[in-house]
Design brief:
The chain is an alpha+beta fold and about 220 residues long. The chain is about 15% helix and about 30% strand. The protein contains three helices and eleven strands. The strands form three sheets. A seven-stranded antiparallel beta sheet has the order 2-1-7-8-9-6-3. Strands 4-5 form a two-stranded antiparallel sheet. Strands 10-11 form a two-stranded antiparallel sheet.
Length: about 220
């Protein structure tokens, strides 16, 4: 299974046609030092800072028919238009890099692109910053957030069943995860439980869901 980079925003999704050769993720801690009288400098540990992610690749022109294209067969102009629209919409983007632990909700901070040598390929660099939603439960909301997860409590009858029948058209594992779990984050569970070798789903009428979603108590 080839590594893929999947970006999704609202109801749209883009699998990068050419997987970036490398990526860089930055993590830091908001620590600080203070000067204490008759003691000297002391280190105070702060909270984790937002993660930063950056990678570069290119959107290939369909005229070249590159053999290493593993994502969507969109034109460079279509890819640029979609990413620009997402950035200007001020909406978070889910970033998944398969075969890694990167599955983050992020904001697109910077999108640089250019054409080289008249190839009609568009070379780009994407820079993301982690997005964390602030949970602010209202006083009259009877469903308070769980201390362990920060998520609102759900009724026990909303647990995910062991299997699901695909009645609607499902394009791939990510779509199945979105329909069943409500988001894309559980696609690995579907792959493992159904012994699927690729993100695509072909002629599967029923999916095993493996472990159920844990409902906060």
């Amino acid at each position: 299974m080839y590594r893929q980079v999947i970006l999704s925003c609202n109801a749209e999704k883009l699998i990068l046609p050419v997987t970036p050769a490398s990526y860089e993720i930055q993590t830091s801690q908001n620590n600080r030092t203070v000067d204490i009288i008759e003691f000297g400098e002391a280190q105070l540990f702060g909270n984790p800072a937002l993660k930063r992610l950056k990678f570069s690749s290119f959107f290939p022109s369909p005229t070249h028919e590159y053999p290493f294209v593993v994502g969507d067969n969109k034109t460079p102009a279509e890819c640029v238009e979609m990413l620009t629209k997402w950035k200007e919409a001020k909406a978070p983007i889910r970033v998944i890099i398969s075969d890694t632990n990167i599955n983050l909700m992020m904001a697109l901070k910077q999108f640089d692109y250019s054409e080289r040598d008249g190839s009609r390929d568009i070379y780009y660099t994407l820079s993301f910053i982690e997005y964390k939603e602030l949970n602010t439960p209202m006083a009259n909301n009877d469903k308070q957030t769980a201390e362990e997860t920060g998520l609102k409590e759900r009724a026990a009858d909303m647990e995910t069943p062991d299997t699901v029948t695909l009645t609607d058209k499902v394009n791939d594992v990510l779509d199945a995860s979105k329909k069943v779990y409500g988001d894309y984050t559980h696609y690995r569970n579907i792959i493992r439980s159904n012994n699927i070798k690729d993100l695509a789903i072909n002629n599967i009428g029923k999916l095993k869901l493996g472990e159920r979603l844990k409902v906060p108590k």
